[in-house]
Amino acid sequence: MLIFPAVDLKEGKAVRLLQGRMEAATVYADDPVAVAQDFARQGAEYLHVVDLNGAFAGEPVNDEVIKKIVSSVSLKVQVGGGIRTLERVVELLKLGVERVILGTVAVRDPDLVEEAVQRYGERIVVGIDAKDGRVAVQGWAETTDLSVVELALAMKKVGVKRVIFTDIARDGMLQGVNIDSTARLAQATGLAVIASGGIAGLNQTSRSGRQGVLIEGAIVGKALYAGAFTLEEAFAAVER
To answer: In the annotation, is 8 catalytic?
Structure first.
């Protein structure tokens, strides 16, 4: 199973939120580039980056930082947050981003997702964020009537191969990722699913890994910043 260390950007700094609330942000580093470099030194292959300002404003805010991260490490960087147009997808890919994560637009404009997938294939990933099983959009500020599985199947129909599933209630809370719901989503759709939101300890990463092909990877953020375990320990846990 793949481990994706996370860097969430707010006004150029690396932060973590509680349950997606911008007012509940904790600044962990003034220099996100240094954080990415440290993850690279610890053996990371991938990096998960979210432009939180972009997610709420619907427009890019942290591009300079993203550009510096991409140019300073050899990691495969995936970026999400406020990506609502095909032009924005192209901008990020030109910055050197490996994968672009589409969230709100998957609900609002599935035709755009389809066009992006036709052009860029598996470099397009869909982020599905949920509150009580319902899809949330606009930086998690709005909850729709769509179920997680409904949206995932609709995305599969337009060619999406991979989704990132976040249980918002657990995000940043260190209460444990919702592994069962994540595995059920993979079983119901046949998509590659990356788990996100709330990984608290090494037992969570190892349990995610034991789901085999059902859960392709896990995004780890606050647990690393809070010192619950190191990235090297996470890699060792999923390999056991």
So the answer is: yes
